[in-house]
Fold this sequence. Notes:
The protein contains three helices and 19 strands. The protein is an alpha+beta fold. It has a three-stranded antiparallel sheet with strand order 1-5-6, with no helix packed on it. Strands 2-13 form a two-stranded antiparallel sheet. Strands 3-4 form a two-stranded antiparallel sheet.
Amino acid sequence: MTAARRAYSATLFAVAIALLGACGRIGYDEVGADSSDATGPSDSAGPVPLFDQMFELIGKSSSKCLNVPLSSTSDGALMEILTCSGGSNQLFRANGTPDGRYVFTNVNSGKCLHTLETMPDPRLAQWTCDGSATQAFAVQNTAVGYFSLVNMASGFCPDVFGNVTTDTTYVHLWTCSGLDNQSWQFSPVYKGGCTPESDASFCARSGATCGAMNGVDNCGSARAVVNCGPCPSLMQACGISTANVCGAIGKVNVAQGGTVTASDPGASVQVMTNAFDGDAATKWLVVGAATPWIAYQFAGATSYVVTSYSVTSSAIVCRPTTTRSRMARLTTAIA
Length: 335
């Protein structure tokens, strides 16, 4: 950070303190909590919960949620915006200190929003909660129902880079402007005492290793995750590159959640469902069958247009002629 910018930071820091002293604490009704069951800052020692609930931080310009990428629980995980899923990696709780500052803790990781000094500009990250000014924020109204968060160490505000609204755009710290890409809505999440699982846990339980996945989470709510992990590139030929799991970005992998049937279900750990688990290291093994077959029925009633598929094997050494004949038979079967 340049000397000029650090000087400006000090000025903003002083302004933030002055505004906080003038405005006092957040009005609970403004952030969506019921004031009857909310606890605000007090004169007691240590942090005190602002309100007794979980909430999403939704960006005004994007209508997307502040997200911990891939449900990371590591220090230094850098914040981004992502389509809201309801996963605990997108849920936060707020604590307040007697002097009116606020600390935001991620429900999944238990770590605090934190200003991380990086080049060319500071990034919003998560870090083990330590009570430092890098994790403390003043909250200021920017529009009806929206607030900016002023970091007490730098005087800067969490800012969606370039006012970009696409998934995975990163969030850095920038001069506070009150613009829409610095405005956040506290959207409360009520689950009747149930804490939603993280997107990573949902994806793992659903058998999705990458790409998008829809289903029902541990609280019985519909869950639509847009990123269960990075997808390998499409397989170009047998054995040439990493086995495909779900194809290129923008395509949907429907090889999970369906029903598998086969001429022989297999035995032990080499069962038929392995053929569709997205793991090239597992296999379906049939011994002594002249014409084994396997079929997959997509889950639900949705119709799809199949634009690409791949065939992988852990047990057979593929050669070009063999691969072509196998793919020809498979294509005929699908048609």
